[in-house]
């Protein structure tokens, strides 16, 4: 029988297309319980690698005959060895190429919709981390919002689309993942925008992102307009694209709302968060399609793999938008904060330009799920 590698891209298609998969995760139990590959139609078995060193005979009856079996570990080596043992026992099996390290870094570009004059809006879905980045394309030009650190994905996609990256935005100073924004701007000559209120400790040059700023993309002049929306950070800024889409950064998600504590100022910023969600956003058109910078659970994905929902529907369905009492809102936000993201303070330092860790260290900083939402 054979053991064959499966790439992160192939696993992503199984997630998006709702295909069945059985995952044998051989990482330690604590790592598995903290973070795993999520799929609508996936089944799981977690047996640490060291429990399988004497053989896989005891787990063979637990492996289904009718589903693809994928063995997963942190970096690949352990899953490769376990897959080989399962193959030697007479079963077909796959192992994840590059392990969870590769899963954490994979981005799947998905078209969200068409824009004025033949333009397009793409969402880059980082399934292993829950990060969402965006590219607005129009007539040879592009703007990028909330790019993650894998800059080649964005520059190569722009080349495929034959567009020049002119503008790069970060909605806020990120704390859960390393931004690729300024590096893309440096590589392409694009203008890099960052909210000035989040950039007091930044040590590189940037263009201040101010409320009401409007950038126009392509000859058809697709508008990307900035809306000051503090609460997750004091500088958090949303974008309205082509009058159709509301990019909310980490302020509003499909299933939750943003946490205000990643700079240690939860009590100070919770009022700003409520004001943004209950006043600023309430003044917007309910037909706007909300596109957040993160998702938390696999159920937030639509059938096409995008993470998007009408603002009016969120007003009706999202619990964080339906807490009438300000005191209850404050307690809901400050009493239900999940653990801080992995290495969040170091990640903030990277995004300020104060430290420049190598690629392997950056990978370790980002390992694990995003934790930008209130539970």
UniProtKB/TrEMBL annotation:
Domain Rhodanese: 17-112
One matching Pfam family: Rhodanese
UniProt superkingdom: Bacteria
Annotated region described as Disordered, given as residue ranges: 356-375
Transmembrane segments: none
Stated name of the protein: MBL fold metallo-hydrolase
Lineage: Bacteria, Bacillati, Bacillota, Bacilli, Bacillales
């Amino acid at each position: 029988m054979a053991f064959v590698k499966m790439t992160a891209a192939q696993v992503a298609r199984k997630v998006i297309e709702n295909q069945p998969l059985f995952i044998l995760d051989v990482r330690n139990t604590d790592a598995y319980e903290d973070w795993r590959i999520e799929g609508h139609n996936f089944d799981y078995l977690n047996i640490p690698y060291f429990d399988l060193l004497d053989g896989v005979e005891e787990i063979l009856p637990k492996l289904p005959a009718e589903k693809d079996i994928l063995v997963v570990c942190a970096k690949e080596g352990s899953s490769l060895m376990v897959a080989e043992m399962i193959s030697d026992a007479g079963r077909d099996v796959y192992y994840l190429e590059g392990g969870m390290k590769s899963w954490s870094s994979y981005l799947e570009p998905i078209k969200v919709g068409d824009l004025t004059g033949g333009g397009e809006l793409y969402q880059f879905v980082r399934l292993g981390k829950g990060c969402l980045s965006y590219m607005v394309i129009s007539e040879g030009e592009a703007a990028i919002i909330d790019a993650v650190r894998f800059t080649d994905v964005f520059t190569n996609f722009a080349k495929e689309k034959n567009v020049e990256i002119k503008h790069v935005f970060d909605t806020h100073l990120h704390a859960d993942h390393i931004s690729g924004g300024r590096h893309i701007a440096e590589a392409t000559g694009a203008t890099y925008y960052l909210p000035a209120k989040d950039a007091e400790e930044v040590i590189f040059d940037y263009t201040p992102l101010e409320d009401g700023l409007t950038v126009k993309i392509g000859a058809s002049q697709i508008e990307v307009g900035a809306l000051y929306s503090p609460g997750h950070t004091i500088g958090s800024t949303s974008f309205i694209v082509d009058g159709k889409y509301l990019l909310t950064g980490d302020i509003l998600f499909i299933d939750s709302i943003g946490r205000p504590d990643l700079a240690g100022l939860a009590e100070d910023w919770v009022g700003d968060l409520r004001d943004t969600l209950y006043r600023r956003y309430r003044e917007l058109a309910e037909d706007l399609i909300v596109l957040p910078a993160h998702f938390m659970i696999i159920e937030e994905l639509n059938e096409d793999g995008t993470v998007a929902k009408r603002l009016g529907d969120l007003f009706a369905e999202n619990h964080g938008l339906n807490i009438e009492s300000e005191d209850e809102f404050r307690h809901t936000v400050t009493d239900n904060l999940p653990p801080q993201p992995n290495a969040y303070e170091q990640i903030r330092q990277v995004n300020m330009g104060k430290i420049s860790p190598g690629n392997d260290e950056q990978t370790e900083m980002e390992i694990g799920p995003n934790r930008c939402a209130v539970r």
